[in-house]
Amino acid sequence: MGDEVYSVRVEEGRAATHDKPSAGPVYRCIYAKDSLLHLPSNLDSPWHFFRDSASKYPSKPMLGRRQKSESEVDPYKWLTYQEAYETAIRIGSAMSSRGVNPGDHCGIYGINCPEWIIAMEACNSHSVTYVPLYDTLGPNVVEFIINHAQVSIAFVQDNKIPSILSCLGQCSSNLKTIVSFGNVSTAQKKEAEELGAYCFSWEEFLQLGNLDADLPPKRKTDICTIMYTSGTTGEPKGVIIKNEAFMAEVLSIDQVLDLTDKPASEDDVYFSFLPLAHVYDQIMETYCIYRGASIGFWQGDVRYLMEDVQALKPTIFCGVPRVFDRVYAGINSKISSGGALRSALFQYAYNYKLGYLEKGLPQDKAAPFFDRLVFDKEFLRVTSGATLAQGYGLTESCGGCFTAIGNVFSMMGTVGVPMTTIEARLESVPEMGYDALSSEAARGEICLRGSTLFSGYHKRQDLTEEVMVDGWFHTGDIGEWQPNGSMKIIDRKKNIFKLSQGEYVAVENIENKYLRCPLITSIWVYGNSFESFLVAVVVPDRKALEDWAVKHNNSSTDDFKSLCENLKARKYILDELNSTGQKHQLRGFEMLKAIHLEPAPFDMERDLITPTFKLKRPQLLKYYKDCIEELYKEGKGTNV
């Protein structure tokens, strides 16, 4: 099974010209070798997915949540497909009564909950373009998006109403209607009215609509959503996604699962906790709606995430690497605390099952005895009884554009093959030494074309033309084709700089290798063309550093900030980082000369990371400017 090839060549590559770098061959997934997936003629809008499922599964549970009482959290309570459908119809009708017409823009602002999905479907019902407002970006960016997208109505989580009202004075020419996910106070209504807008509770707004409303016609080419990416520099970009791209992505997921594993069904339960403001979770929840599955929402508090999982018992779980890293760390901690015998049993069972997975046995047949005895409460590829597939995607690709095939263990560590709506090729990046036409290892920038790509950036044709060249979307990510036709992400094109001696540094690749050091949780590596070496700001693992301090009788153990300032602690972490770098073949100029230990994790409150945990490098430089200057003085003098 592992020797099969899962991508097929459909066009030859081309050599470089004076104005264009060389490009490798064009590949498709083997399941789309004859043609890319196209939409059936009877589907024009994601609304049709919801409408059809409500007709097929009216009494099935669709949207569930846990309500908090004074002393405990209740079990999940559910809205059926019929109840959710009727509510969406009435909300859509109410929007129409407030003068919101097809093609207008509606904001949705808040954490994942039934109201979020119902507001989205209400927009779909009336061909209104919905615009997610990040619930982590703060009033200034919310204000920018409302004005840039000309949002005229917004559905808002109760505790985000003050945030909306605080920027309403700068948005009042656009935003005229605010609808709370729950209740709204008299004072809030008055404040909104003084600024020319009207504020409704969810129930009040529901009363404005009716079930007999006529729905406007829908077209595949209508804009489904404008999704603003947080971005690591500059203002957010509004990614335009049309109905046809959104639906094709959903159907492609279904096609791949049907051919390689098993598609979702009305018996499945999805756990909703990844932000609905991002395309990944929107696509997955729409897929679940398409298949008649149930969607249970988390409480919105990461401390109770696993309690929600245990209460819901989901059969479908989607996460990003950071989530699975936490799960991995939690499992290891639990195993270690169980004593030497338990650790030894786990390791034996792990290696036993891993061996059979590597030989090509499917997940459920690799080690059923150990699944019951050892792995019954654990997670991930070996330790869970579930198929785990890694993928890759961007907002501009409407979510996943590559996916690993379930139970193909040779795809471990890769992002898999192109989805059945996408063609992919690599383009050489000579300044980084990546050759897309190499016969040994084809490497280069990943470029995409197909039916699930975005339709440009809202009001930013200049930015659209930067990334869309001759019909190909340039992702900025560096990939390497594997022998089985899967793609491996190895670098990032944009985060490159040149040191003073002329060496190019691909900083994300370096950071990823340093992150393999178990003593740290985050790292930002910095360099520029006026300096000859690299420095870094590092967030150490608190327990690891405190354990070291205790072992070395350090007096700073009661104060983590002081411990991070300790010269011996800094040298210890620096030496371990460079040792890790050497193990992973980093070159001499990629080693760190000096580091600053930061006791507080990089966070959004200080604008140092995006909501998807990507480093915001210009903001980090601004925040740590004085620190960086000191590190360079230190690196040129006596090292730590």
Total DSSP helices: 22
Radius of gyration from CA coordinates: 26 Å
> What global shape is seen?
globular
What proportion of the residues is helical, as a percent range?
Answer: 25-40%
Proportion of residues in β-strands: 15-25%
The CATH architecture category of the largest domain equals 3-Layer(aba) Sandwich
Which class of secondary structure composition applies to the elements? alpha/beta
Sheet bearing the most strands, described? Answer: 5 strands, parallel
Enzyme class: ligase
InterPro entries: AMP-binding_CS, AMP-dep_synth/lig_dom, ANL_N_sf, LC-FACS_euk
Family: Belongs to the ATP-dependent AMP-binding enzyme family.
Protein name: Long-chain-fatty-acid--CoA ligase
Gist?
This is Long-chain-fatty-acid--CoA ligase. GO terms for molecular function: long-chain fatty acid-CoA ligase activity. With 640 residues, this protein is α/β, with parallel strands linked by helices.
Report on the structure:
The chain is an alpha/beta fold and 640 residues long. It has 4 domains: 7-35 and 390-466 and 484-490, Luciferase, domain 3 (Roll); 46-68 and 76-306, ANL, N-terminal domain (Rossmann fold); 318-383; 496-636, GMP Synthetase, Chain A, domain 3 (2-Layer Sandwich), CATH 3.30.300. Helices cover 36% and strands 22% of the residues. β22 (496-498) and β23 form a beta hairpin. α2 (81-97) packs across α3 (114-125). The longest helix has 19 residues, at 340-358.
